[in-house]
Amino acid sequence: MQIQGAVVVVTGAASGIGRAMARRFAADGASIVYVADLDGAGAAAVAEEIGGVGVDIDVTDEAAIVALIEQVERDHGPIDLWAGNAGIGANGGVELGDDEWNANWNVNVLAHVKACRHLVPRWTQRGSGHLLITASAAGLLTNLGTAPYAVTKHGAVALAEWIAITHGDAGVGVSCLCPQGVRTPMTEADGELAVEVVKAMGMIEPEEVAEAVSAGLANDDFLILPHPEVARYELNRAGDRGRWLAGMRKLQATLPGS
Ligand SMILES: NC(=O)c1ccc[n+]([C@@H]2O[C@H](COP(=O)([O-])OP(=O)(O)OC[C@H]3O[C@@H](n4cnc5c(N)ncnc54)[C@H](O)[C@@H]3O)[C@@H](O)[C@H]2O)c1
């Protein structure tokens, strides 16, 4: 898809990967970029910097999503790209309570469902529109130390695939962004197993992710992998699941506190 002249919404855009994407889309010539985030002040600051529109929004609130879609289309015309990027994590496994599991499910999966509920009918009627879901390499492989994150990011990848299969022929483009470690506030904490794992695998900057997204969208790629080695890891996992699991257990055993 063409970013030049596009009407774009980026969620989770006050910080990290979302902010870098918003900046990049503005630099690539988007006609308008909506910078949406729970952190309204942060969103406003990014919007001011790039000449966009800041929106204070909780992506789990379906009424707020509908209001945003209607506001954008009333003021700037059809949404060409919805970049659903807001995401959260939780350190731990099945011992974590329902609150943590539900929060990850609501933000990392259901928020995309709620946006698609209102975007896909518009896009299929027009015969065009593009969805970008920021999932994670955790959604293709796993993420040691954080079960809710690994499980819900698999859900995000599955949803992106399902939308692409079901609505692709009606003109809905879908891309699924699956980075490994990226230097953002999400990966700034020290001493937590999930974060240590990500750091051990090598970190890249949010601007490098935005660069990969810009290229991937221009190419209409479904899978956008800012860390290209993830493609090989995925093949290894699919080719011999038992061997892959054994390798992951070895990796886990080398980690502090495992
Ligand atoms: N940093 C990494 O290593 C990494 C790797 C793979 C995938 N990701 C994914 O990239 C995306 C962005 O993460 P990041 O690393 O830039 O983290 P970040 O914490 O810098 O940014 C996440 C943003 O999402 C916003 N947000 C959280 N919940 C929200 C909600 N309910 N409604 C609206 N906004 C909300 C936060 O306020 C924050 O500004 C996430 O989906 C994350 O899972 C990150």
Which descriptors would you attach to this protein?
258 residues, alpha/beta, 9 helices, 7 strands, 52% helix, binds nicotinamide-adenine-dinucleotide, 7-stranded parallel sheet, single chain, Rossmann fold
How would you describe this protein?
By secondary structure, the protein is of the alpha/beta class. The chain has one domain (7-228): NAD(P)-binding Rossmann-like Domain (Rossmann fold). It is 52% helix and 13% strand. It has nine helices and seven strands; from the N terminus they run E-H-E-H-E-H-E-H-E-H-E-H-H-E-H-H. It has helices at residues 16-27, 40-50, 62-76, 98-126, 147-167, 193-200, 206-218, 229-239, 241-253, and strands spanning 7-11, 32-37, 53-56, 81-84, 129-134, 172-177, 223-224. Strands 3-2-1-4-5-6-7 form a seven-stranded parallel beta sheet, with helices on both faces. Helix 2 (40-50) links the parallel strand 2 and strand 3. It is globular, with a radius of gyration of 18 Å. 44% of the residues are buried. The model has no long low-confidence stretch (mean pLDDT 96). Residues 11-12, 14-18, 37-39, 57-60, 85-88, 107, 134, 136, 179, 181-182, 184-187, 198 line the site of nicotinamide-adenine-dinucleotide (NAD).
